[in-house]
Amino acid sequence: MRLVTDLASDDVNPLLTVGTAIAKFWPQRFGELLPAEDGSDFRFTAYVMRDRELFAQAGLLPADLPLLFHGRQEGSEFWMNDQTRDYYRRHLFLHEATHVFMRHIGGEADELPLWFLEGMAELVATHLIADDGSIAFNVFPDVRERFAGLDRMELLRQDISENGVRSIEDVTRLRNGDFSRLETYAWAWALCAFLDSHPETRDGFRDAVRHLRERSLPPWLAEVAAGDPVGLEVAWTQFVSHVTYRFDFERTRIAILDGMPLTGPQSVDVRSNRGWQSSGVRVEAGQRYSVESAGQITLADTPRPWVSEADGISFQYVDGLPIGRLLGTVLSAEGDAATRARSMLNELPLGNAAGFVAPVSGTLYLRINDDWGSLADNRGALRVTIQNSD
């Protein structure tokens, strides 16, 4: 790596440190680096600019480099503006450097989907520096303060509140012009982070990424989507709708289990340390049902055990409802995968005793309200009984 910069050494040294470390990580993630065309070691040049005019005067800027940009990569070079936050300066540096690596490992990489190229650069660049100086890349953010300036989850939430959830297909259709907006990078990151972390896709995705020279990613994704389109879309929709720091992919894993019509009261245990769980009950649109809950659950242990019934604990809220509140939703039995997945976004606040009218026909799912990154310390289950109330 050749670094050309006008930054002070206190800002340059961390870039050299993470640049050296990620050079060892890239081959593990994407496969071995190919040599340069002349057979020598591959090298790239990074221009990190605090005073852009100095680089222009030195003839180091491409003529078509836009005035307003964060970073831009071309071949074995990239340019980036300095950033005000230390974490994000390193992140952007690693993002652009990862572009260089991915586009060099094989000629076919340039034909990979843009959402993947941008999403993987975002994913790999997300890093943590430990107290002992060791650096981990490709991490899922755990505490916002450690990733100052990244704000990908905040951008996702804002875009969803304004425009709704994008399906997997929506994200895979992103094109070059879409990436003029920061929220587009958030969506690309989210899809790569989801595929890289979800138990059903993690191993296959990582294997496909290690074989980019064969362009195995697009057919792999198509095969996964064809194998279980509803399950994949439901998991994705729930992830982006509840995305949070320390998101727990294992405990929020959703089993798609069809329910059966009620022939009388039916009871099911709803575990407090899991996401949506099938009740085993099929409900019909427009019909009224009643739900009664019994038992207590523990939602945390410090400073003392937080014990709750199904109405929840009103001194802490998640998504506008008390933590511990029993929630319901219905997975529609009709429509394409994206439509069915979105039907679960209609969440019903239930509690100890409640009635509801089924918004669609399908399977009733239940869960305990809590942040989807804070399920690990929950204990216990509620006994929930569902019956017709018409």
Task: Please tell me about this protein's structure.
There is one protein chain. This protein is of the alpha+beta class and 390 residues long. It has helices spanning 9-30, 52-57, 86-104, 114-125, 152-163, 168-172, 182-197, 202-209, 217-227, 229-241, 337-343; strands spanning 2-5, 45-49, 71-74, 77-81, 128-129, 135-136, 260-261, 266-271, 277-283, 288-294, 297-298, 307-308, 311-318, 321-332, 348-349, 353-357, 362-368, 381-388. The chain has 2 domains: 2-227; 260-388, Galactose-binding lectin (Jelly Rolls), CATH 2.60.120. Helices cover 34% and strands 23% of the residues. Strands 7, 9, 13, 14, 15 and 17 form a 6-stranded mixed β-sheet that branches. Strands 1-2-4-3 form a 4-stranded mixed β-sheet. α7 (182-197) crosses α8 and α9 (217-227) packs across α10.
List key phrases describing it.
about 400 residues; elongated; six-stranded mixed beta sheet; four-stranded mixed beta sheet; alpha+beta; Jelly Rolls
Alpha-carbon distance between the termini?
A: 71 Å
The number of E-state strands comes to 18
Q: Cα-atom Rg, whole angstroms?
A: 24 Å
What is the domain tally? 2
Tertiary shape: elongated
User: How helix-rich are the residues, as a percent range?
Assistant: 25-40%
Beta-strand content bin: 15-25%
Order of helices and strands: EHEHEEHHEEHHHHHHEEEEEEEEHEEEE
